[in-house]
Amino acid sequence: MTLRLPYGDVRLGRDVPHLPKERRLPDMLHQLEHPELVRVIRELESDNLAIEFDGRRASDWGNLGDRMSFIIDLFRSRQKSLELFDQPFLYEQRLELDANRIPTGHL
Protein backbone atom coordinates (compact mmCIF):
# COMPACT_ATOMS: atom_id res chain seq x y z
CA MET A 1 0.00 0.00 0.00
CA THR A 2 1.27 3.47 -0.88
CA LEU A 3 0.27 6.86 0.49
CA ARG A 4 0.73 9.62 -2.06
CA LEU A 5 1.87 12.74 -0.22
CA PRO A 6 3.11 16.14 -1.46
CA TYR A 7 6.72 15.37 -0.49
CA GLY A 8 6.73 11.97 -2.15
CA ASP A 9 5.12 8.60 -1.79
CA VAL A 10 5.22 6.66 1.47
CA ARG A 11 5.18 2.89 1.12
CA LEU A 12 3.82 1.29 4.25
CA GLY A 13 6.34 -1.54 4.13
CA ARG A 14 9.32 0.82 3.93
CA ASP A 15 11.00 3.36 6.19
CA VAL A 16 9.41 6.81 6.55
CA PRO A 17 11.16 8.90 3.89
CA HIS A 18 13.02 12.09 4.69
CA LEU A 19 11.51 15.50 4.05
CA PRO A 20 12.99 17.79 1.36
CA LYS A 21 16.58 18.82 2.05
CA GLU A 22 17.10 15.51 3.90
CA ARG A 23 15.40 16.78 7.05
CA ARG A 24 13.80 14.09 9.17
CA LEU A 25 11.49 16.28 11.27
CA PRO A 26 10.23 19.85 11.37
CA ASP A 27 12.49 21.89 13.66
CA MET A 28 9.86 22.28 16.38
CA LEU A 29 9.43 18.50 16.69
CA HIS A 30 13.03 17.43 17.20
CA GLN A 31 12.74 17.63 20.96
CA LEU A 32 9.49 16.46 22.56
CA GLU A 33 8.86 18.14 25.89
CA HIS A 34 5.17 17.93 26.74
CA PRO A 35 4.97 15.28 29.51
CA GLU A 36 1.64 13.78 28.38
CA LEU A 37 2.82 13.49 24.77
CA VAL A 38 6.05 11.84 25.87
CA ARG A 39 4.09 9.40 28.06
CA VAL A 40 1.64 8.45 25.30
CA ILE A 41 4.37 7.95 22.70
CA ARG A 42 6.45 5.83 25.05
CA GLU A 43 3.37 3.74 25.80
CA LEU A 44 2.53 3.19 22.12
CA GLU A 45 6.00 2.57 20.77
CA SER A 46 6.97 -1.07 20.68
CA ASP A 47 10.57 -0.44 21.75
CA ASN A 48 9.89 2.38 24.26
CA LEU A 49 12.45 4.57 22.48
CA ALA A 50 9.78 6.71 20.87
CA ILE A 51 11.27 10.04 21.79
CA GLU A 52 14.07 9.33 19.32
CA PHE A 53 12.73 9.50 15.76
CA ASP A 54 13.92 6.51 13.77
CA GLY A 55 11.47 6.49 10.84
CA ARG A 56 11.66 2.73 10.53
CA ARG A 57 9.18 0.59 8.69
CA ALA A 58 6.52 -1.51 10.36
CA SER A 59 7.75 -5.05 9.87
CA ASP A 60 4.55 -6.63 11.19
CA TRP A 61 1.29 -4.71 10.63
CA GLY A 62 -0.45 -7.25 12.87
CA ASN A 63 1.64 -6.01 15.81
CA LEU A 64 0.04 -2.87 17.29
CA GLY A 65 3.32 -1.53 18.71
CA ASP A 66 5.13 -1.97 15.40
CA ARG A 67 2.30 -0.34 13.48
CA MET A 68 1.99 2.58 15.95
CA SER A 69 5.73 3.21 15.82
CA PHE A 70 5.51 3.76 12.05
CA ILE A 71 2.35 5.88 12.33
CA ILE A 72 3.83 8.07 15.08
CA ASP A 73 6.97 8.69 13.02
CA LEU A 74 4.94 9.41 9.87
CA PHE A 75 2.60 11.86 11.62
CA ARG A 76 5.44 13.51 13.52
CA SER A 77 7.48 14.01 10.36
CA ARG A 78 4.58 15.37 8.27
CA GLN A 79 2.41 17.28 10.75
CA LYS A 80 3.70 20.70 9.58
CA SER A 81 3.03 19.96 5.89
CA LEU A 82 0.28 22.39 4.96
CA GLU A 83 0.07 20.75 1.53
CA LEU A 84 -1.78 17.87 3.20
CA PHE A 85 -4.79 20.18 3.52
CA ASP A 86 -5.05 20.61 -0.26
CA GLN A 87 -7.81 18.87 -2.19
CA PRO A 88 -6.70 15.31 -3.02
CA PHE A 89 -8.64 15.20 -6.30
CA LEU A 90 -9.01 17.47 -9.31
CA TYR A 91 -12.31 19.30 -9.76
CA GLU A 92 -13.38 16.93 -12.57
CA GLN A 93 -12.55 13.92 -10.40
CA ARG A 94 -14.66 15.30 -7.54
CA LEU A 95 -17.59 15.66 -9.94
CA GLU A 96 -17.20 12.00 -10.91
CA LEU A 97 -17.03 10.95 -7.26
CA ASP A 98 -20.15 12.99 -6.47
CA ALA A 99 -21.90 11.08 -9.27
CA ASN A 100 -20.80 7.75 -7.71
CA ARG A 101 -18.41 7.02 -10.56
CA ILE A 102 -14.74 6.10 -10.37
CA PRO A 103 -12.78 9.04 -11.78
CA THR A 104 -10.13 8.64 -14.43
CA GLY A 105 -6.55 9.78 -14.10
CA HIS A 106 -4.06 9.65 -11.24
CA LEU A 107 -5.85 8.94 -7.96
Question: What report would you give on this structure?
Answer:
- This protein is mainly α and 107 residues long.
- The chain contains three helices and two strands; from the N terminus they run E-E-H-H-H.
- Strands 1-2 form a two-stranded antiparallel ribbon.
- The chain has one domain (2-98).
- 9% of the residues are buried.
- The chain has helices at 35-44, 64-78, 91-98, and strands at residues 2-5, 8-11.
- The model has no long low-confidence stretch (mean pLDDT 81).
- The longest helix is centred in the middle third of the chain and has 15 residues, at 64-78.
What is the radius of gyration computed over CA atoms, rounded to a whole number of angstroms? 16 Å
Tally the beta strands: 2
**SSE arrangement, N to C:** EEHHH
Number of domains: 1
What spatial order of strands do you see in the largest sheet?
1-2
| Structural class determined from secondary elements | mainly alpha
- Tell me the major beta sheet: 2 strands, antiparallel
Ends apart, CA distance between termini: 13 Å
Number of helices: 3
Mean pLDDT over the residues: 81
Fraction of residues in β-strands: 5-15%
The low-pLDDT segments are none
Instruction: Classify the helix fraction into a percent range.
Output: 25-40%
So what's the overall shape?
globular
